[in-house]
Amino acid sequence: MASPLEHYGLIGDSETVALISRTGSLDWLCLPRIDSDACFAKLLGNDNHGYWTIRPATDVHSVTQRYRPDTLILETEVRCDGGRIRLIDFMPLCATAEHDIIRIVEGVDGAVPIHADLKARFGYGKTIPWIRCNAHRALLTSGPDALALSSPVPLRPDYEGARVEADFVVRAGERLPFTLSFYPSHEQHLGHDVDAEKELAATEAFWRGWVGNCRYHGPYRDAVVRSLITLKALTHAPTGGIVAAPTTSLPEELGGVRNWDYRYCWLRDSTLTLDALMIGGYQEEARAWIDWLVRATAGAPAEAQIMYGVAGEHRLTEIELPWLPGYEGSTPVRIGNGAYDQFQLDIYGETLNTLYEARVNGVEHALDWDRVIVLVDFVEKNWQRPDEGIWEIRGQSHLHFTHSKLMAWVAVDRGVKFIERFGKGAPSKVERRLFRWRALREEIRADILARAFNPRIRAFAQSYGSDALDASVLLIPHMGFLPADDPRMLSTVAAIEKGLTSDGFVYRYATETGVDGLAGHEATFLICSFWLVDNLAMAGRLDDAEALFDRLLSVRNDLGLLAEEYHPGLQRQIGNFPQAFSHVGIIDSAFRLEAKRAGRTRSFPAAMADAVA
Fold first, then answer.
1. Which of 277, 320, 366, 560 is deepest in the core (most CB within 10 A)?
2. pLDDT one-digit tens code per residue, 18-40
3. Quick check: helix, strand or coil at residue 106?
4. What is the rounded CA–CA span in Å between residue 476 and residue 445?
């Protein structure tokens, strides 16, 4: 059985990641890309679905985990009968078609017997590999994929169990490196000798150098740095795409059916992800993300999707994997995401907002006026259509969601601002649209104010004519539509605090209404809780904002990682892990709180500053 999410750490090489538990078990790894088939899938099943464990073969007394400061190098220290060991796990930054996972077993005190057990199962835990093994090397092949394990101690193949084992003793002062390398099976593996200590030093130097660019030096620096490193780990370096999470089907309700594949790139994440990277000081990553966005969304606006693959792939067909029993019995396990072909109006606002914010903040990109025109023109013709909304409703779809209308307004507003700030020398067809788009912006604004604010609940409702609350309306001040201290926003925040929280943490919406068409419920949504922190801070309730922010930080695991959701009753993180959006929330709220407390104006998104100045 998999460990609790809080017991996992993340390592990665800029193209994929692995999750390793406190017990020394590598339980999730997709190769060669973060959205490829998993070759270790115990996270969604059990030992039969693949793992790689290195652990003391004796009674354990205590386990502590940490990252080496300012790196993605995971260290697990174990006190046990016989002494103390340290397990150092990392992945060198990928530079070839091969991917390496390096695990160094270090003896700290005494002499400790160790058992190593590698049981690869390709195809998400379904396919047993062909194993060839000699004294210190094992090759595991399955169709197009292969793994090579290099060991400093003799290996013992278990052909019947289709795994490779080793038993040895590590003594104080010894460091024994194990390397697992992935390579295409049609290419001859010529040894690929890895100098583990050299790669460790290079990996540490890379991450420390990268973190050195961080602009944040306030009281939450450790949390901000860990979140920035996590976002970097979820970035596919060759393309610039950033996935929402590196996992699939980790449930929003333990034992429930709300299990989705998050190993894709959502457009709606782009606005806050870009903001987090830019305010953090990482323009190179922001520029790569913009380039990905421009390529992925190329084509007719009517065919734009809410999400894409890491290289901009369009088809993300959703299927179920019946041989996997799911995390803590949560089925079905799904790969692909059927929401990719939904109509969601908000993506046009998010795309234009991202392009605008990047240009204002000095992240240069090719400004294609035709792209701006076709996107805003599409919104002009379609903003009154219902859609599935930000939460990808699969039940009572096609409502007029408030957040969707807000983002339609954002699309037109950013189109206007593009012309006003960068329109010098633009084609005449651009300038001719300025008057029309200004009028359209006011029309959408008036429509939202008249139909989205519900006086019965004294809040902006989930959708037009609804009495339901929805945390997505907390983005109204972020987008520059209204200031946070507007009376309508103040009463909306009060309504959400009263009717859409548990122990202070915020739900996305009330699942009891049945609006999403799914059985069961879900836990509080962490990014929504950070949006509440921001609203409290922007409205002048700084003490309340900091108190909630500190509570949110307190539910991170020992390594500073957050999943998608938190269950206050169970006091557990649930949902896909770690979640980019949750870490974006940490970064943005930390900058905002530090600036507010210091009496400075945070470097808000430019469009927001234009609106509330």
1. 277
2. 999 999 999 999 999 999 999 99
3. strand
4. 11
Instruction: Please report, as a single letter, which amino acid is at residue 359.
Output: R
Least confident of 93-97, 163-167, 173-177, 339-343: 93-97
Per-residue pLDDT tens digits for 244-279: 999 999 999 999 999 999 999 998 877 777 788 888
* Residue ranges of the chain assigned to CATH 2.70.98.50: 5-187
In angstroms, the CA 281 to CA 215 distance is 5
Q: Are 508 and 516 in contact (CB under 8 A)?
A: no
Is residue 171 packed enough to be buried (19+ CB in 10 Å), middle (13-18) or exposed (0-12)? middle
Residue ranges, comma separated, of all CATH 1.50.10.10 domains in the chain are 454-613
- Mean pLDDT of all residues in 408-430: 89
Per-residue pLDDT tens digits for 477-506: 999 999 999 999 999 999 999 999 999 999
The angle that helices 346-360 and 283-296 make with each other, rounded to 10 degrees, is 140
Rounded average pLDDT over 312-330: 96
Under 8 Å CB-to-CB from 424, ≥6 apart: which residues?
Answer: none
For residue 609, is pLDDT > 70?
A: no
Q: Does domain 5-187 have CATH number 3.40.50.2300?
A: no
Please say whether the beta carbons of 477 and 489 come within 8 A.
yes
d(CA 76, CA 87): 5
| Residues 571 and 583 sit within 8 Å (Cβ to Cβ) | no
Interatomic CA distance for residues 186 and 221, integer angstroms: 46
Distance CA 91, CA 299 (A): 36
Give 454-613's CATH code, choosing from 1.50.10.10, 3.40.50.2300, 1.10.10.10, 3.40.50.150: 1.50.10.10
Which residues, listed in sequence order, are joined to residue 68 by a DSSP beta bridge? none
Q: What is the mean pLDDT of residues 317-323?
A: 96
Which tokens belong to 2? 């998999």
- For the whole model, what pTM was predicted? 0.95
Radius of gyration over every alpha carbon of the chain, rounded to an integer in angstroms: 25
Candidates 219, 287, 241; CA nearest to 589 is 219
Distance CA(94)–CA(362), nearest Å, equals 29
Query: Which amino acid is residue 138, in one-letter code?
Result: A
